[in-house]
Amino acid sequence: MTKYEYVWLDGYQPEPFLRSKVKVTNDQTPPEWSFDGSSTLQADGGSSDCILTPVQEYTNPLFGDKLVMCGVQTGSREVHPSNTRHAASEVASDEWWFGFEQEYFLTNPDGTILGWEDGIPSKPQGEYYCGVGAANVKGREVSEAHLEACLEAGIELTGTNAEVALGQWEYQCLGKGIKAGDDLWMSRYLLNKVAEDFDVSVNIHPKPQSGDWNGSGMHTNFSNKEMRESGSEELFNSMCEKLGKVHEDAINNYGSDNDQRLTGLHETQKITEFSFGVSDRGASIRIPIYTVEHDWNGYLEDRRPASNADPYKIINHIISTLS
Ligand code: MG
Q: How far is CA 20 from CA 94, 128, 189, 192, in A?
């Protein structure tokens, strides 16, 4: 018997939550499976069945045998409106690589950020980023267990670090084509599940703490074959200009409440403005020095996506704009 842990996105707005359930079967591959869509804002009670269609399989590092990322279909076998993966999969090919920098806060079950139980931390931001010591970092054990779990699952995390605010962390997740989106969603699932073991929750709101505290983003590094292998200054500039022409569309797809984060402060550009520049962390798009130094072969970093953004929507926006 094989234990498959099915994972999917529900119908909540503006961002979906992750759901899962376990199937035990003799089947060699995970079969399609139905669920009660009326409990996930994906169907009415009178016609509640929705269908899970397996799209990506992983070794399950925490339980049973396999993790199964699923798309959702309606009971009449149409692409469900909540299924943002479908549109992204129509444009994404493996020549497109994405490196997502997922930032997040760890909280107690009551929602207070780790280290903030007695209110605002006594020290301002400064010593927390990549810090060490019990006064400077909270929740390292979660970050480390999550990294191990992702690597065991076959999800390519390329690094982790303590972030600028106390209780804030980041990991970087690299993938190709549509699998980049699957991997990021599954890495979020594993993060939430690993955190359960420590009685800790994960908050990916882009600005959980107002004031002079960093918000959370999901900087998105991306490239295609031409950018990596036969790039030029003209190519990179023209791509940035194309992205600038659809800036509003990007913001609509890059996560809710992002206006609280994209203020022009804390290494961000204002949400109403678009700019790009070499090494510029105050720009919407940064052209990394790596790219310039490699004779304009490399990648771009879109700094606008919020930490709560749907990676399928980001992939769809970037590839549709640039191809
Ligand atoms: Mg960061």
A: 27, 34, 9, 12
